[in-house]
Amino acid sequence: MKRISILGSTGSIGKQTLDVVRQHKDKFEVIAISANSSVDLLLEQIIEFRPKYVAVYNESSALKLKSMIPVNINIEVFSGMEGLKIISSLDEIDVLLTAIVGMIGLVPTLEAIKKGKDIALANKETLVCAGDLVMREAKKHNVSILPVDSEHSAIFQCLNGEQNKEIEKIILTASGGPFRGKSKNDLLNVTKNQALKHPNWSMGRKISIDSSTLMNKGLEVIEAKWLFGVGQEQIDVVVHPQSIIHSMVQFIDSSVIAQLGCPDMRLPIQYALSYPDRVECDFERLDLAKVATLTFEEPDLNTFPCLKLAYESLKMGGTYSAVLNSANEVLVNEFLEDKIGFYDIPYYIEKTLEVHNSISNPTLEEILEIDKWTREYLERR
Ligand code: NAD
Ligand code: MG
User: Fold this and answer.
1) C-beta separation of 129 from 325 below 8 A
2) What pLDDT, on a 0 to 100 scale, did the predictor assign at position 198?
3) What whole-number distance in Å separates Cα of residue 232 and Cα of residue 229?
4) Span 36-49, mean pLDDT?
């Protein structure tokens, strides 16, 4: 039995994680759940899964949830960052599934690692802002970081039984998002509703916008560098609109291994939780004759400058990726609030990177300070 705590149980990945648990109650047990403020859904999840602990980041929502829990249910309610840290490092858990959105997941994830808990990682922002630190801590505490992101799960599966030194390159596939094939001119005035319509995946709002700008792929390039210990020149992106090949690895003898499947996030979630075992399930099977055609094209870096900025931040090293990530979080939020246009996102990310003074080998405190600086800088602009 694997005992799980979930950061962000009410989101897209969180709900799909609970669906995996629902189908395998003999293998997985939910010990703790958490969310920002969605108390109604948390209550439903508490009634169904009977976790022992719940953390609600927003203090008044935590109080509200407390008042809603039926008297016959025994559960401890925590709040704030302290609450997230507590449910991430409980003695009773084996694995923390990080399905929270944004770099706010960093501190609780590090807390879990220090307590020796394995991490099933969906929260890519954590590795983008502090990949070096997180991987070093994981090594020190003998913790496995098991990827939930479908591309990284694919690479992880392709590398089973292989040696890292024999990797020539990693080929990340990208669906291309809702604006594939469009030019910069076509996209100058796109709205958030157009950007939120992903062709293949139904996801949270932030990652949906990131997919429309291709920043999601940029964040995934950085995530891949830290997870698999390769250089950025060894990571390629290819646009594959059908999202059937989830990613590939090319080895030094020219062989390419790929992982395929129908687009369904429950598969990489389940694999991260069941690893090293595979678990039987009823997910849709791939019918290649029905799919018929798999196509591939180069990403268009002119129309989607965010991908280029992510590569550049990685190349510049230090804390540039942390700034890229924090700036992107702020600007995506502003785009979702109709305060800025689509191309203001890469424009202001670039401006912020230009004025940033990078630090090499940053500590947690320095990364948190840089996040604060980035937010203040963009506030003042
Ligand atoms: P979402 O917006 O649907 O859900 C986010 C979850 O985080 C919610 O439960 C929310 O309550 C919680 N949360 C947000 N702020 C919080 C806070 N301050 N304290 C506590 N909880 C907080 O997002 P999502 O699509 O599920 O994505 C989650 C993460 O997984 C992101 O990092 C995303 O990049 C990654 N990811 C998502 C998918 C996908 O298919 N949705 C695929 C790959 C990776
Ligand atoms: Mg992905």
Assistant:
1) yes
2) 85
3) 10
4) 98
Contact status, residue 1 vs residue 29, Cβ threshold 8 Å:
yes
The protein residue with its alpha carbon nearest to ligand 1, atom 39, reads 203
List pocket residues of ligand 1, CB cut-off 6 Å: 8-14, 34-36, 38, 57, 84, 99-101, 104, 122-125, 149, 201, 203-207, 265
pLDDT at 202 over 90: no
- On the question of pLDDT at 204 being above 90, the answer is yes
**CA–CA distances in Å: residue 292 to residues 97, 244, 286:** 35, 11, 11
Please tell me the distance from the alpha carbon of residue 193 to that of residue 277, in angstroms, as a whole number.
Answer: 40
**H-only helix segments in the chain:** 12-23, 39-49, 59-68, 80-88, 106-114, 124-140, 150-158, 184-187, 192-195, 205-213, 215-228, 266-274, 288-291, 305-316, 320-336, 344-355, 364-380
Q: Are the beta carbons of 102 and 207 closer than 8 angstroms?
A: no
* 36 C-alpha to ligand 1 centroid (Å): 10
